[in-house]
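Extended Data, panel c. Modelled sequence:
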Amino acid sequence: MPFILSIVQRFKNERRNMSLTSRHLLGLQGVPKEDIQLILDTATTFREVLERPIKKVPTLQGKTIVNLFYENSTRTRISFELAQKRLSADTINFSTSTSSAKKGETFKDTVRNIEAMKVDMIVVRHESAGVPQYLTRISKANILNAGDGLHEHPTQGLLDMYSIREKTGSLEGLKVCIVGDVGHSRVALSNIFGLNSMGAKVSVCGPLTMIPVGIEKLGVKIYTDINKAIAENDVLNVLRIQLERKAGQVIPSTREYHNYYGITAERIEKNNKNILILHPGPINRGVEITSEVADGPYQVILDQVTNGVAVRMAVLYLLGTMH
């Protein structure tokens, strides 16, 4: 137990002079560089905890956190739940399929009933953009956005940045290209906002039907040639083609998409053997990326999953210990 006590003491010492500027994490748009830096640095400490024989610290003991998921999720929900348990928080999982929402209870009434149980933090995932912001007006708890509609997915953006920094050492000046279904992606927006704040040079690549009109106003470059994008960038963050959001209607077929924009070992070998490949998952193998690349030496996809727990631990800790 001594190493756990030393970690807890280190957190207490670091907290004396460092704090986030907001008591919520609703997105990465407008979040100061210093806040992102603090989250990533704190995640490094928690990443060490995950390598210990006992992967648990008592930093949020006595805190109650509700996972309010109105949208299906596997990775994000499990990652948040595991992060909460690693911090010794009490976790409650809310499922719409077994809730009073099925009986007609309004979202507002659901939240107020949950809050009446004296919860400290709400992690929310919803198909409608703006729900986390709305929660801040009707709840006194800390609100953490786990993905809202086509708006943002801030912890995914943070774990992507952490995974890139872990491999490259720095985000400043790094060239990162987001490839694929940008128009349907909340991950893309969080990456763009976060990476821009950290001094990276961000671009997007895909068929123009998948690139939002005016996205260049966010400070990104647009590629329509995947080979050029691979050759001119240090990192590719490959997005899933979101067929459930009708992405299939803006391309002739997934086969044709793969022929023109699929990330293959041949394209990497030909254009840039030093490229780093990320993917937020789940992967459509053979569509946006081949199995050879998804399982190969260029990618850090499983590292992203592990890092996701550490990053979410960092965010939960920093929000949960604010005064």
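The beta strands are 64-69, 90-95, 121-126, 142-148, 175-179, 201-205, 221-223, 235-238, 276-278. This feature is highlighted in the accompanying rendering.
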